[in-house]
Specification:
The protein is of the alpha/beta class. Helix content is 45%, strand content 13%. The chain has eight helices and 14 strands. The strands form three sheets. A five-stranded parallel sheet has the order 1-4-7-10-13. Strands 3-6-9-12-14 form a five-stranded parallel sheet. Strands 2-5-8-11 form a four-stranded parallel sheet, with no helix packed on it.
Length: 265
């Protein structure tokens, strides 16, 4: 095949997708800028908020979408919600500091903890998702996923405070509901019992009530699965059924001593 035919074939197939990768980089820059405005003591909110609005306008302009709300309206609603969002994030950071003996300060949590960054990006993306902003919230969550290994869908509903410790491998699905004062550790999956496109508009992911701790590697699946208040879910537990309040669920481990003949071999 000649180079001209190869180029033409690529052009023809490329036209099947209207992708502008500037949207990806622009969304990541917007996410970083907003995070810094919210937390960096050296960055003035008043001097940078207009530039942030311009960045939002630029990425919104790259989206082809017949949208019920204008992007200007979405931005105004988002700004109104931003102070309460920051209050929630401050609660999250304080919660991590108070419960993690390795944390020496709230500032350390904000600067160094991947769990906090993932939660911050989730809360920002969730606010935009709730305001029916197309595409951008999902790209924000995937940006945090790439940096931290923590995958939180912006459609999930998560109370405050919320604590993710370590965090690598955490997956929180789109229709998950997490109430207040919940702590989860690395490798936890809050997922769907089955994957089917027909279930797109159904609740596919679990509900976790107040004051629940879920330890590393636990997998909890299903839209009808509810973890009751004050529960502790042990490491590597697999759950597809609800758990009543005040329960402790753990995986039983059997320990057996080797026989002397085993050592000889």
């Amino acid at each position: 095949m000649s180079i001209d035919r190869i180029i033409q074939s690529i052009r023809n197939n490329k036209q099947n997708h209207l992708v502008d990768f500037r949207l990806k980089s622009g969304t990541e820059n917007f996410t970083n800028d907003l995070f810094h405005i919210l937390f960096d003591a050296k960055i003035s909110v008043s001097q940078n908020i207009d530039a942030l609005a311009d960045s939002f306008k630029d990425i919104a302009a790259m989206i082809e979408d017949d949208h019920a709300l204008s992007f200007e309206t979405i931005w105004k609603k988002f700004l109104i919600e931003l102070p309460d969002l920051l209050k929630q994030l401050n609660q999250d950071a304080k919660c991590i500091y108070l419960h993690d003996p390795a944390a020496k300060s709230v500032e350390e949590v904000i600067l160094a903890y991947p769990g906090f960054f993932a939660i911050a990006v989730y809360r920002i993306s969730h606010a935009l998702h709730q305001n029916e902003m197309p595409l951008i919230p999902r790209m924000m969550s995937e940006y945090a996923h790439r940096l931290t290994g923590i995958d939180i869908h912006p459609g999930a509903v998560i109370g405050s405070p919320f604590f993710i410790d370590h965090g690598t491998g955490v997956v929180i699905g789109e229709s998950t509901v997490i109430k207040n004062k919940v702590k989860i550790y690395q490798g936890v999956t809050l997922g769907a019992l089955q994957v089917s496109k027909e279930m797109q508009n159904q609740k596919r992911h679990p509900t976790v009530e107040d004051n629940v701790t879920i330890y590393a590697g636990a997998t909890i699946l299903g839209g009808d699965t509810v973890i009751g208040k004050n529960c502790t879910i042990g490491g590597n537990v697999w759950l597809t059924n609800s758990v009543p309040a005040d329960s402790v669920v753990y995986q039983r481990t059997d320990t057996k001593l080797k026989k002397k003949t085993d050592h000889a071999n």
